Amino acid sequence: MCGIVGYVGYRDALGVVVDALRRMEYRGYDSAGVAILDGNGGIAVERKAGRLANLEAELDEAGAAKFAGTSGMGHTRWATHGAPTDRNAHPHRDCSGKLAVVHNGIIENFAPLRRELEDAGIELRSDTDTEVAVHLVARAYAEGPTAGDFTASVLAVLRRLDGAFTLVFTHADHPGTIVAARQSTPLVVGVGQGEMFIASDVTAFIEHTREAVELGQNQAVVITADGYTVTDFDGDTDVTSRPFTIDWDLAAAEKGGHDYFMLKEIEEQPTAVADTLIGHFVVDENGGRIVLDEQRLADQELREFDKVFVVACGSSYHAGLLAKYAIEHWTRVPVEVELASEFRYRDPVLDRSTLVVAVSQSGETADTLEAVRHAKEQKARVLAICNTNGAQIPRESDAVIYTRTGPEIGVASTKAFLAQVAANYLVGLALAQARGTKYPDEVAREFAELESMPKLIARVLETAPQVRAIARELAHVPTVLFLGRHVGYPVALEGALKLKELAYMHAEGFAAGELKHGPIALIEDGLPVIVVMPSPKGRAVLHSKLLSNIREIQARGARTIVIAEEGDDTVRPFADDLIEIPAAPTLFQPLLSTVPLQIFAAEVAQARGYDVDKPRNLAKSVTVE
Ligand code: M6R
């Protein structure tokens, strides 16, 4: 999500900044901009929607002289608040035009801050959450205890911001200084000789220096051509940052040191889920409430729906299957989940009181888009869950929740899938809240549990070495089966899809209860079966039934690879391999149990020598039916 670069030194800053933006294009973006300081109190800003080439054309037209200078910053924006337009592109400036900011992330409390600024007579010129930051710093710089002190003004504002953000500020009157900060989102310093860089990742400056410093959480940094100072948001220098030498080449740097983007994306899942949840619970006089991103549906409508359809394709469909368990449980409204390609040609029963939830990472999948159009023709209302701001599906929908994972480059969905699951649960909680099927404190509790999941996902990532070892042993078997019950069933389907698409291996996911109705005939000596165990603390009947299923297949010679909750000793005797994941509420367990299956599929594919990011015959966005 968003690429940020800042430069102070002796080179032509525009060249450095534009090159850096080009190298960070892989992060995904929908607009770009630069701010260059001339060193004499002037600042030149250009920003443009669309590809970097659009910005470069504008810069060419304006002429190099306008952008001469040895310090500046640049930004590629992945839209979250506000459409991907010229006016929402970064940098944003204060009313004097001297102070500029670029931002990655989400300022969660931007709404009250925006009101505060508007009440003070400041006219904001964009729809972004970002712009509040620059006006607040301008006010702190103009008056009060931090007046005239650029760094202190920035720090004072940082202390007022909630959310996840990287912010970089430049001031025309301080051309040799850049002030930046991070809270949850990334920021690295590049340490050169007589020049300094800051950026979202090291690709931005790897051609100039290999000496870097990774900032810790809630740290600010001031860079000048001669050095850098890291502090906390109170200005205290007693903090720890991590200097390191970059030993990756450029291609590896883009992939965070991995061979494939997908492996990096698997690791990004805690952040992807955390970012997707940010801002969706707003504290109010009743304790708090769930809010969507773009809400063009009245609460009254949410109350009146008598049926929900979830439509999607591939992994997004599996995320939809999980939505059924949560939405029906929390709201008692019947939910049907359907492949978008089937839904549209089937003549489903739809009317004004039907809510259709369309789940799509790309927002452009032809089948899902056509399903949305069909639903709208039948007067149903549509809520989109999408990862791409401004894509066609959210544009044509009545409400939207964005999964804020940043671009997913690997064709196989990983971080987008987990974020879709979280977003589907938000839909369930929003419906439960509007319909009163959950008390506000229950909604708040469920949301808090959901918010605690990213930490647990990070712990599941620690199982990677064990999962990889199992994957390497099984890399050349012809078939792998996946079994689950309840929410473990869609997880089994997702695990099988990952293995098919990445490793070109025969893989099938089954509802464990179906075993005796046919699939058990497939079990033979040594056949690997990956089993997703429900929590022993959840519904006891689910756990004991699955335990008997494992016994049955093990007795017939299957090699059982069991994903089970830590401390679930009952399963140990029946597991040839046991992958332990942390305990979580039943509905949320898929956010954990899916992760080893992704790692497994990627490792098998690598062991078989396949391109993990670009599996054969597949496209990331399927824009034809
Ligand atoms: O962009 P979408 O979420 O609409 O895409 C849907 C499917 O094409 C997608 O999930 C596909 O199944 C992935 N390759 C799965 O990893």
Give a description of the structure:
Homodimer. It catalyses: D-fructose 6-phosphate + L-glutamine = D-glucosamine 6-phosphate + L-glutamate. Its EC number is 2.6.1.16. The relative contact order is 0.08. The chain is globular and about 80 Å long. The protein folds into three domains: about 5-250, Glutamine Phosphoribosylpyrophosphate, subunit 1, domain 1, CATH 3.60.20.10; about 260-450, Rossmann fold, CATH 3.40.50; about 460-605, 3-Layer(aba) Sandwich (Rossmann fold). Helix 8 runs parallel beside helix 14 (about 415-435), helix 14 packs antiparallel against helix 15 (about 440-450) and helix 18 (about 490-505) packs parallel to helix 20 (about 590-605). The longest helix has 21 residues, at about 415-435. With about 625 residues, the chain is an alpha/beta fold. The structure holds 5-amino-5-deoxy-1-O-phosphono-D-mannitol (M6R). 5-amino-5-deoxy-1-O-phosphono-D-mannitol (M6R) binds next to helix 10.
